[in-house]
Request: fold
Amino acid sequence: MKHGVAFRKFSRPTAHRMLMLRNLVTSLIKHEQIKTTLPKARDTARLAEKIITMGKKGDLPAYQRANSFLLEPKLTPKVFKELAQRYADRVGGYTRIHKFGNRPGDNAPTAVLELVDNPRDLKFEMTARAVAWELLSKKVQQVGPKTALDSGIQGVEGVVQREQALGPKERGLLREKTRWSLQKVLRFRGKDASVELRRKAEDHIDTLLAKPLALKEIAEQKLKADVQSEDTPLAGRKALRLKAGEVLPGSGESALRAAQGALGAEGSRKWVHRPKLGIDTAAWSSL
Amino acid sequence: MAALALPAARPLLPAFRLPFARPIFAGAFLPALQVAPKPFGFSLQSAWESLIELIPPFLLAVPKKKVSHSRKSMRSANKGLKDKQNLVHCPGCGSAKLAHHLCPNCYSSINRGFKARSKESGQPSGAVVEIAE
Reply:
């Protein structure tokens, strides 16, 4: 039983364990995003947030305590100036853990531990991509992929501003979860953040539209030339091929269903329409 | 000459007769018993019986027949890998991913984008560092 036990031992004696955690916290503050095992990430997050709290407190005893904990003394001013300013309005929760599968060598569950609102914030990036995907999906479902490609997506900025103000139960253009993530990532950032998010979303929309076009172009080139030339590298062609379980914007298939293939539920699948795993060929073949 | 009345065959090792406890290290006694001279009036049958009593019964167990292919396969019917049920579409790129985990495609492209940008502007910040520990 482990009832009420707060700390992990990591199969190490106390001195080794504390030094390891100090190293991890120092690295996190230095690089603002690290990848390690999930239990280590959880313990490191706890300690790192305490150091940042010392930074926000700002007085001399706190500085001395933080300075003695960190293994690089030149990082302590960063905590007390840059990070304290960044998290001035935020009440706790200065770190974020993203689970990231299992490590190949020992099958250890790994995680990416990052400081919230850092320049390479993963949640910010993923929210921008999710907004892009959903807006493109809606457009493709309404007018088809060809028209969506020709016209593009306008008014992303307006969408972002409107969704920021909407409540959780109200109906908008985005899914409930995406809207919630959008509101969270934009809450403690400045005015530039929504502009940055819009820019990233628009870039991602272009990427999503460019992929099947490039695939089509390469397929045409393949038909023309039997002999492989330097202009049509094999690696490029393979990289653009859709993988198992991958879908295009506008398709409403579930990933689990797609992965099950022919062994999935028979009732939902029409025997006439034989879709390749995850691709809504009806919508995208006309592109 | 008077014939010597031979004494009746009696157990020569009364001290080692332990009816309830079976010593595990009976094997250690074996060479000693083999090396010891043949006891006078001690029949081979009772010697073997006393030896069996010292050895624990699990040392004598042995499979009677080779386990058939069918029975072997039936035993390992439940040992196969289980399918993963927690598959979802990535909200950013549409590819399959584990639920509540990062999408590896998106993470890879985000990282590459940052590295390319930092390379262009002359390496201002470090990349994501893998801490093995």
Summary: Chain A touches chain B through 46 residues (CB under 8 Å). The mean pLDDT of chain A is 86.
